Amino acid sequence: MSIFRPLVVPFAALRPAHGRAQEVIAPPYDVLNTEEARALAQGRPWSFLHISKPEIDLPAGIDPYSPQVYAKAAENLKNMLHAGVLKQDEQACYYAYRLIMGEHAQVGLVAAASVADYDSNRIRKHEFTRPDKEDDRVRQIEALGAQTGPVLLAYPHQPEVDAILAAATRQEADADGVAESGVRHSLWAIRDADSIARLSALFDAMPALYIADGHHRSAAASRVCAARRAANPAHTGGEAYNYFLSVIFPHHQMRIMDYNRLIKDLNGLSEPEFMATVAENFMIEMEDAAVQPARAGEFGLYLNGRWMRLTIRADLIPRDPVGRLDVSLLQNNLIAPVLGITDPRRDKRIDFVGGIRGLDELQRRVDSGEMALAFSLHPTSMQDLMAVADANEVMPPKSTWFEPKLADGLASHMLD
Questions:
Q1: Residues 353 and 262 sit within 8 Å (Cβ to Cβ)
Q2: N or C: which end of the chain has fewer CB within 10 A?
Q3: Per-residue pLDDT reduced to its tens digit, 306-335
Q4: Is the distance from CB of 372 to CB of 366 less than 8 angstroms?
């Protein structure tokens, strides 16, 4: 007999006390290096960076994977609880989470998502993970007895869920703050039993959820669950470790920006030789301004102070969900065969720039002589990401750059 398990469940979040969110919220742990985090936390004793990047409170040069670092995270969490900066809700709730970045807004559900459904691929992946990064998150979770880094998920079109979440945001927010980036983060607790039951039922009816960002966090949650389950002879499946912290947005509200490429050299080719080779697979048009590709199959090329628009030959676009991605088309038809970069994960001749930094950053790094050329890409669509995940395939490296990003510290999931 199969045992029913909910796809998502409400939980009692650990979150900033009333009026303290502005002091607490911090960028995701993995978008800052140690020195950037140290500078950002300067003069901010209650910044969540003291928990997510605790090496900032230890001597410079310490190994960020040292046992001392995880112990410091636990100490800092205890101090924030003792000071009343963080408090845990008394009842299990869902939460509406709204992000506002400029004119863009998106509203999602903060929930605890099923590890079992992650393991069975109902919560679908599209990236490989690295064991060392998984190990780091496992140690962090176990040291804190909590999951503090939310996994960014997407749910397929479900207008009733959208409507319930939108209604929740019409009340005064339970937590509200503006990050250094200018993004506004707001949280509303959904305590009404009928709304909680309806949201649970609507999610249970969904065929799948999709990981947008947070593959290492979700993989670590699965490992923690497996270890705790094995060590618990009274395991029931209802324990907190069976679920992981997630924020789930409707896929049509999520914003993927372009993830552009910079290359150090022309692989021994002269500029005329390089352009002649490119012309075999792409139509080339000279442009007077920076090229932001308007559609899939178009690319911008910046070389020697000039922008060009490249359009790939239609017969070179395959049907498979990975091969037809623009990042794959550029890699397979130009970067690998012409520029000789066959492993973009490890090759030091290629670098990647998220679209939030703009095309000016591509020009700057080429004009400085640091790089020889740059490619601008059309953003990967959520539909393409979901198609890759549905096919149980893996996206090429640096395929998606999600903005705005979630904040750490707005809601954490306690396991102990």
A1: yes
A2: N
A3: 999 999 999 999 999 999 999 999 999 999
A4: yes
Strands 243-250 and 151-155, by their bridges, are: parallel
Is residue 291 a contact partner of residue 261, using CB atoms and an 8 Å limit? Answer: no
Q: What is the dihedral of CA 103, 108, 110, 111, to 10 degrees?
A: -170
DSSP code at position 381: P
In the block, tokens 């922008």 appear at 307
Peptide bond into 404 cis (omega under 30): yes
Tokens 């490119």 correspond to: 278
Spatial distance between the Cα atoms of 409 and 21, rounded to a whole number of angstroms:
8
Q: φ, ψ for residue 358 (rounded to 5)?
A: 80, 165
Annotated domain spans of the chain = 8-255+403-414, 259-378
| Dist. CA 415–CA 106, nearest whole Å | 28
What is the C-alpha to C-alpha distance for residues 65 and 84, in angstroms, rounded to an integer?
Answer: 28
Domain 259-378, CATH 3.30.1760 — does that match?
yes
Query: What is the rounded CA–CA span in Å between residue 238 and residue 399?
Result: 36
